[in-house]
Structure formats: C-alpha cells, structure tokens
Amino acid sequence: MKRLLTTATAFALLSGAAQAEGTLSVYHWFEYIPQELVDKFTAETGIAVTIDTYDSNESMLAALKAGKLGQYDVAVPADFMVKIMTDEGMLDTFTTEEMPNHGNIAPQWMDVYFDPGRKSSIPYQWGGTSFSVNRDVYPGDISSLAIIFDPPPELQGKINVLDSQNEVLILGSLYLGIPQCTTDREQLKALNDMLLNAKQHWASFGSDTSKDVLVSGDAAAGMIYNGFSAKARAEGANVEYSYPKEGHVLWMDNMVLLKDAPNRENAIKFMNFLLLPENAAAVTNYAAYTAGVTGVEPFLDDAIKNSPENNPPADATPGVFAQACDAETQKLYDAIWTNLKK
Amino acid sequence: MKGVRHYPGFLPMAVACLIILYAPLIVVMIYSFNGSTSITTWGGFSWRWYADVFTGPEAPRFKAAAWNSITIAVLAATTATAIAVAASLAMIRGGRFRGKSATFALINLPLMVPEIVVAVACLIFFTTIGLTTGYLTILIAHITFCIPFAYLPIAARLQGIEDTYEQAARDLYASRAQAFRLILLPLMMPGILSGFLLAFIISLDDFIITNFVKGAGMETLPTAIFGSVKQGIKPNIMAISTMMLAVSVIFVTLSYLVNRIGQRTRA
Amino acid sequence: MAGMTPTPKGNGTGYRSLVGPLLLPTWVVIGIFLVLPVALMAVYSFLTKEFRGGVIWDFTLAAYDQFFLNRGLFGDEPPTLEWTYITIFWRSIWQAALATLICLIVGFPTAWFIATRPPKARAIWLFLVTIPYWVNLLIRTVSLKFLIRENGPLNESLMSIGLITDPLPLVNTNLAVQLGLFYSYLPFMVLPIYAAVERYNFALSEAAADLYASRWVTLREIVLPVVKPGIIAGCILVFVPSLGAFLAPDLLGGAKTFMIGSLIDEQFRGSQGNWPFGAAAAMILMTLVLIVLMIYARAQTKGEAR
C-alpha cells in the first residue's frame, strides 16, 4: 500500500516536474483559439500549452474558486467578470516593461473601467450577443427580441438559449426596457415572470452547443454570439444574426494574468504574443469577432471583415455592456436565474 | 419439458432488447466510416476519421487523454485488486470477528452511494485539505470506488475454494506464505483477473467523479469526449467511440475466457 | 452462499490472526477517501455560502431552508413550502422509477428467454447482452443522441418507410431522458434476473402445470416469488444510478430541466456556485438512496426468515 502510494506520488510529482519546465496552462472559452496559433507559439518559444475550456463566465469563476486558482496561468473573462475577479483578489498584475507589445492595445480599450491602464489584462476579442434565426424555417421579421422571449408559432419549441445567466438576464431586461442592476421589485418580478413564460417555448439551454444546434437543425433559432453565428453560417446553416431594436449585449473578453500562476513568465510571453497584430488577427479570423489590437486590418480575411455579423446596419440600436452589480443586487438576479433553470 | 419454459412473446421481447441495446452502437459504428465531413450525409466508406483521431488537430489532446485514462485505470485497478485480495482473505477465511458486517458494508459503500455524491464529497474533501486536483486526486478517487468491483468476483471465487487444499499443504509443513503463494493464489487467479478487469473497465468508464476532481489541463478519455461532444457530435468522436467499443468487446471476451478457465479448474 | 461450503472456514488456514492487517488498507482507503469526505460534505451543507463558489465557516441552516422553504423572490415573504426542489427530486424519482419499470418489462422476458436456451445459445445471448454493459456509458449516451436527433438515422428511416411525415422531436425532451435512462441501465436489469432464473428449478413449474395452472398463473404464483431477489436486485441496480444520473439529462434533455444530478452539478461547476446548497441536495439524495437500500435489506432478511 505504502509503496503504491509512493509510486503514485512519484508519478504525480514527475508529471508536475515536467510541467514546471516550459509549460503554460490556459483556461479558455470553448472554440476560441485556433490550434495553429497555439502551435506557432510553441514553435517560437518551446513552451507547451495545455488548454481547458469553460462555457460561461460564471462557471469559470466557480471552477477557479473550487481550487483551480493556482493551477492556471491565464483565463479569458469578459469585462464585468474581470471587475469581479479583481475585487475578489484573483488577478496578478504585470508592468508594461514586462510586456513589450503592450502599446499595441487599441486606445479605446486601454482605460477600461474594469482594468484602468491594463495592468492585469489584455484585450482578447470583443463582440456582441443577441440571437440568430434559421431563415428556411422562419423568413419573417426578426428585428425584435420577441423572437426569443415571445416567439412566433413557427419557432416555438425550437429555440436554444445560452446557458449564461448574465446574457440571458440582460437581454430579457432589454426586451422589457428595464435597467441593469435594478433593485425595483416590480421590474424584477416582471423580468422573472416574463422569463418563466418564455421558457415553455425553449428547447434547450446551451452555450457551447449554440452553434451546433443551429447547424444540425436541432434548433431553428437561438441566442448566440455574433462570431459564433458567423461560424454557423460558414458551416452551411442558413442563419441570420439579428441586431434587435431593443438593443443587444456587448462584451469584451480579456486575457487575464491569474494570481498564483504556476508559469507567470510564460503567461506574460503568451499575452505579449497575442498582442502582435498578426496573431490577434489569427484569432479574429478563427473566431469571427473583433480584436482589440491596433494594426490587425492587413491580416484579416475579407469574409470576416465584411461579415454581416460584425457590421451592424447603420440604424441598429447600440449594444450595452454588462454592469457588475453589487453583491446584494446580484443575489436577486441569481434568484431569478435559479428560478428560471429549475 | 420445454412447455413450462416457453412463454409467448418472450422471444420478440428478447430480440427487441438486443435491438435497443445495439442500434445506437451500430449506427455510430457505421457512421464512423463516413467519408463526408457532415454527420448527416453519407459520403462513402472511408478511414479518414480514424486517421484524424491519430493525426488530426485534436490528436495530441486525445492521445494525452487516452494515456491518462489507461495509466489511471491500470494503477487504480491494480491497487484496488491488491486491497480486495487482502480484504477477501480476511472476510472469507478470517472466521467471525468483531466489525465483520460493518466492514462488509464499508467495502460495498462505494456501490451504494450515488456517483454524483461521491464526486461532490471528493471535491469538497480535496479542496478542504488543500490537495491540488489533478492526476493524483483522480487516481485516489478511482482506487476507492474500484475496490468493491474488484472485491466481489474475488470473494465469490474464494468462497468456492475449499480450504482442504491449503490444510493439506500446511500438513506437509508448508509455511502460511508458501501455502498462499503456491496453492491458494493460483486457485484464486481467475477471480483476481475478473476483479481486475472489472475494476479496470469501471475506472476507464468513469465520467462524473473524474469530471469533478480533475485538475488544470488534465483530461481522461471520457472527459475529453464529453468536452468535444458538447460542441456537436463530430465524425472523429464516432471513430474514437468505435475503437473504445472494440476495446470493450475484447475485454468481455477476455473475462469470458477467464471465467471458462475458472469453471474448469473448479470442477 | 456460505451454506454451500461444507467445511467451516478460517480455522485451519491461519488467516484469523491476520484479519486486522489484511483489512487495514480497505479501512484506510475507503475510510479516508469516502467516509470522511461524505462526513465533510454533511458539514458543508450547514455552512454559509460564499458569493459564487466556496464557503464561509459559519454554521447555518440556510441550505436546507432554501431547499424546503419559499420566502419569495426577495426572501422576505412569510415562508411557504418550496416546491421547486421537491419537484426536481420528485421528477427524478418518477423518471428513475419509470425507467426501472420499463427495464423490468423488457428485461424480465429477455432474462427468462436467455436462461431457458440450450447452453451454447445461452452463452451467445449472454455474451451479447453483456457487451453493452461494458461499453462506456458516455459513448452509449452520445450514440443514442446521434440516433434520435432531428435529422438522425431513426427519423430518416422512419420517414423513408412512410411511418411518419415529420421528424419526431425526440432530442431535448423528457422522453429522450427517459429513453436514455432505460437504455443506459437495461443490462443492469437483465443480468441479475438471468442469474436468478438460471437457478430456478423448473420442476416447480411442471408441478404447477400438472395441477392445471395456466402459464401465467404459474409465472405469477410460482416463478415470481422464487426469482424475486434477482428482480429486486435488478430494480435497485437500475433505480439508484438513474436517480443521480447526469449524462442523460445533460446530453439528451438539453440541460433544460433539472434532475437531481444536474442540480447538484450546477451548484459546483455551473453558474450558481452554491456549495452548501449542493452539499445539502447531495445529502438528501444519499438519504433517499439509503432508505431504498434499507427497505431492500429488510425485505431480504424477511425473505430469508421465511
């Protein structure tokens, strides 16, 4: 027994020792970085990269709190989540000297509220969240969030909704014209009732599945990220991404340096690598969102640059970013989400 | 003679049972040889997805996951089998002792507690004692829940072996260790092999517990497959599934043969 | 079982004195890595939740309060019985029970049929039923999902033979979850019943037939009581894992409605991050299962006494 445990420990230490020498542990969204780019980084630096994926900001936070902090070097939270993680003391900081390409960050993404001056994070990609509709199934008007929350008969029971508390609740609030982080009970009750009523028309909850259900035809409409919808279209689904008149969610995903990163130097190398225009453009060409780095234009595919998903019509209602509510208010939104998912 | 054994409608039910059990597996097997990139249209027979598993963009991930799965299954099954052999000697050959029924319950506890509960309990435990989740935590959890699976066939086998053989050996001045190694162990071997195989396949199969206690960058085959499948069932997943299916068939055949040998030696 | 062996065990072979050392590894491993964690989980269910994951070491009944009492969306209304989680548990119990019943309806005739084949055919049938039992559950669930999806082979073939005109919407329904549970655990039902029927003495049936009992009366009055232990064992082997199933609801049910397994999973790995509540739900699940097992154990000792 003792010998077996020793063997097992030795095994674990062995693999641990191999890791300390030139590795990088990335906690990333699903389908968000091209393997070729990771291979290129490894070829340039000799650093082996392992990637684990998550499917919502909230589950990433939960996993890190469940003992994974200290195991990963970098993660890719959205704007509001960077704020939450900073407040929780989960992020490390770096200096601009450590990161020569820091100056490549686009000026409008430099002094963001969640990380003024970009001391813990770099912009990864930004984009929007609304919904897409399979035009073979439903050729009608799709300019309102009612498609998701009060769907026409053709789409009832064929809708996939993102398994992401933040995005579902904000889109619902936009649909009802309710401000974010409201503490008004009537408004919250109305949101709760509207969502419960809408749920009977939904087929499934899924974020990582949101493209596949549209491509496979398992769903005819679905809440989705703009780039993911572009990929669904590229894979042959006749889907159209909507810029609804009530507005849509905007987000910026950021690569953050995690506290107690086992390979801090490699993490900074990786972030610096991703700030090079051609590398940021490679991510954009793969994920079909928009980079937050200057000088990417020459490297972008035309199809991505001119995609309808990335170029809202001139009269589109502007999107909104998520706000980080205080803990007391957040509890109310958590209750609505639990109520919805039960 | 045959009359009382025959019930009308039981044959169709048995056939239906086989169809239900096999239809999904056979469909996936067929589609794993689909030459088309789309899973819905048939593009002719092809080995391309098998090649993709070994050389495609996801190959390194699956290789690492397969390596983890197999090494964990071997280590966990070996350890659990060793523990189970010792336990079965005490339980079957140890006579009556205090705490015997409690020990019996303890051995079977991993079978009785729902998997999701074990998963949650392990996660809480490892987090509380500050043990970083990873290879070691998966291995520990697997050893624990493999013990009853290894124990049951071993104990059943041992129960069927009369102790007259060993007594004869002891009468001829064999030491206890010699009697065990030369007489009892060979007789127990079919049970030990069955127990090992069962523990091995149970470890290889586990998803829920592994998913809770795996650490950063650690995947086993089931968690890697689950991660892939969430984004749609791709043809390479069907190829992997078919290969794992083949492994399972080999294992059933092996354990079947071991049992046959066991029956012959018992006779 | 022990009654079958003629000589008393453990006197002449010298393992009696070694009982302690031989059992030590079992006690240590299962004690430290299963009993202790479950005890710790029980403690966690009484702790205060930290915002999004983790706990604060302040003892409270909040998790159980949340489970059983409804205090309104804002937590300040007079408490009424909370139906949400009871409904989830009830749904899981119901689906597991139904899966068990369907498995029994299909599994018993199958087991009986196999056990009454001549030895060679029996071995082949048994082999065929055992294989799926050994195939990875995840792979089997994924295969089923592929088979029944909207444009999948099942719908396509049903449509091509003209049985249906529109594809059956199977995936992401409770029916799919039900089908998944049934499919996942069917071999667990067949094998123990087979073992019981194989030991059944058919002379009993013949005697009944001589007394002009019909086939079905014989089955009900003579066979069922004798093979009951096998049936009960099969039912438990299907019911218990079905109750805490995670893969079938998640992959086949579209993660839309919670079952016990996915509810607990969500508290730890999903967006809720409410550990004490997840621990409490796991405690309640474990209690349920232990109650079922205790009923089983009592029924068994009663049966032996008779």
What does this structure look like?
The complex is a heterotrimer of chains A (342), B (267) and C (306). Chain A is an alpha/beta fold. Helices cover 41% and strands 18% of the residues of chain A. In chain A, α2 links the parallel β1 and β2 (48-54). The model of chain B has no long low-confidence stretch (mean pLDDT 87). In chain C, the strands form 2 sheets. Chain C has a two-stranded antiparallel sheet. Chain C has a two-stranded antiparallel ribbon with strand order 3-4. In chain C, α5 (137-148) crosses α7. Chains in contact: A-B, A-C, B-C. Chains B and C meet through α1, α3, α4, α5 and α6 of B and α1, α3, α4, α5 and α7 of C.
The top-level CATH class of the domain at 113-258 in chain C is Mainly Alpha
Oligomer: heterotrimer
Q: Tell me the span between the first and last alpha carbons of chain C.
A: 17 Å
Task: Give unreliable regions of chain A as ranges.
Answer: 1-20
Give the overall pLDDT of chain C as a whole number.
Answer: 84
Strand content of chain A: 15-25%
Looking at the structure, what is the overall shape of chain A?
globular
Radius of gyration of chain C: 24 Å
Mean pLDDT of chain A: 89
In angstroms, what is the radius of gyration of chain A?
A: 21 Å
Count of helices of chain C?
12
Keywords for this entry:
heterotrimer; A: 342 residues; alpha/beta; two-stranded antiparallel ribbon; 13 strands; globular; B: 267 residues; mainly alpha; 11 helices; 76% helix
Question: Helix and strand layout, with pairings?
Answer:
The complex is a heterotrimer of chains A (342), B (267) and C (306).
Chain A: H1 2-20, E1 23-29, H2 35-45, E2 48-54, H3 57-68, E3 74-75, H4 79-87, E4 111-112, E5 115-116, E6 121-134, H5 146-149, E7 159-161, H6 165-176, H7 185-199, E8 202-205, H8 210-216, E9 221-225, H9 226-234, E10 239-242, E11 249-257, H10 264-274, H11 277-287, E12 290-291, H12 302-305, E13 320-321, H13 327-341
Parallel strand pairs in A: 1-2, 1-3, 7-8, 7-9, 11-13
Antiparallel strand pairs in A: 3-11, 4-5, 6-9, 6-10, 6-11, 6-12
Helix pairs in contact in A: 6-7, 7-13, 8-9
Chain B: H1 10-31, H2 48-55, H3 59-93, H4 100-112, H5 115-129, H6 135-159, H7 164-171, H8 176-205, H9 208-213, H10 221-230, H11 235-266
Helix pairs in contact in B: 1-11, 2-3, 2-11, 3-6, 3-8, 3-10, 4-6, 6-8, 7-8, 8-11
Chain C: H1 19-44, E1 47-49, E2 55-59, H2 62-68, E3 69-70, E4 80-81, H3 84-115, H4 119-134, H5 137-148, H6 153-160, H7 174-199, H8 203-210, H9 215-243, H10 247-252, H11 260-269, H12 275-305
Antiparallel strand pairs in C: 1-2, 3-4
